[in-house]
Each structure stands twice: as structure tokens, then as C-alpha cells.
Amino acid sequence: MNKVRCLIIDDEPIARRVVRSYLQNFSQFEILEEFGNSYDTILYLAEHEIDLLFLDIKMPGLNGLDFLETLSPRPKVIIITAYRDYALQGFELEVADYLLKPVSEARFIKALKKVERELTPADDPSQNIVYRDYLLIKAHRKTYKIPYPEIEMIESRGDNIIVFYQKNRLEARAVMSNLEKELPHYFLRTHRSFIINTHFVSAFTAEEAELENHCAPIGRSYRNEVLKALN
Prior knowledge:
The chain contains 7 helices and 15 strands. The protein is of the alpha/beta class. The chain folds into 2 domains: 116 residues, Rossmann fold, CATH 3.40.50.2300; 97 residues, CATH 2.40.50.1020. The protein has a 5-stranded parallel beta sheet. A 5-stranded antiparallel beta sheet has the order 10-9-8-12-11. It is elongated, with a radius of gyration of 19 Å. 30% of the residues are buried.
């Protein structure tokens, strides 16, 4: 795999230093430059090609998402922000990942690995997994295609599952453990009968996670892992 040429765009110097420190052990990712605003980045990109952007959203002047819309073609993008509200808009712009500050090193590395897979040439023998950004589920004699970022929660009831998305619900016959293997990393099993999209979590206790439209229990055997992930 060739070097991955990177830019860091964030108006907070501390945030840029964190990204640099996390990248130190990954020699294949080369930081070409860093900027504190979108306008300087636009000038740089007019003369340079890059492969990966580490991008903040809230910055002086043009915000990160509006900046992304000016790029064509777009490089791979990992958004790093303190604001969860823009996740759906980010994934609609086909960002590789959406990280919430403060970002743990383990979570950052997971995002890097995802980008690394996506940048691996199709004829590379190590590229033997097919990735998609939506859930395919059969119900009522139809096949439904539900984008992962729109799914708030999945509940298991007997032999069926219920997918809650955009204030809708879809019930289908499926095995929860098989479904869990397909979901992106930002989904979290909180209970033997519940999986949540962590981007929708607004509050939580040791017993329960509150989402935008639903609540999910946190099972005793899942508690330590769930609280660690949500914190």
C-alpha cells in the first residue's frame, strides 16, 4: 500500500496535536500539512493532492461540512468533532467515519483501519470483505434498504427483530447475533435483546441508555463494556 497523504483541519491546536500523536505509530499515514480553517485548506488543495482529511466541523468561517461540499472529487474523510448532531449529514457526504471528541486512541485506530481497507486496491488479495453502508432486511415480501446512520435501535423479540429508524419501525424474522456482525462499529449491544446506534445516545445511566426517541436497557453482563464505550 502506498503512503496515505493526510491533512489535519481543526481550529484547536490541542486537537491537531492529538491526531498527530495517534498517527506516530502508523508510518503509512503521512501528514503533509495542518490548518486551522477551511479557507487555507482550499488554497492548499488547489495545488496538492491528498488521500485523507481529518476534519473538524465547527471552525471560523466556512464550517467543515460546507467545506466538504466544495470538494470534487473528495478524498477520504474522518470527521472529528464535539457535535453528534451532524452525523447523518456527514455520512450523506460519504465520510469514512465520524468521531466524537474526546477521541480515544483505540477508537481512532479503528477509523484508520477502516480507511486503510477502503484505500486498498480491489485486486489486492487482502481485500476480501465487502462493505456497505446500509442494512438489507426482508419483511412483508419486500427487501428493505435502510442506511445505517438512520437506524436508532434494534430490538429482539422472540424469533423476530424490530428495527427502529427515522420514527419508523420494521419487524422481520432474523437472528440478532448474525445481524450484529453486519453493523458498523458505532452500534453497541447493550442487552441480549437490544443494539443501539451510539450516535443517538443523549443520556445514560448504569441501567439504561436514552436515545432520541427510545430507551434501551443496559444488561448486567454488558454494563462494563457499554459504559466504557459511552464514556
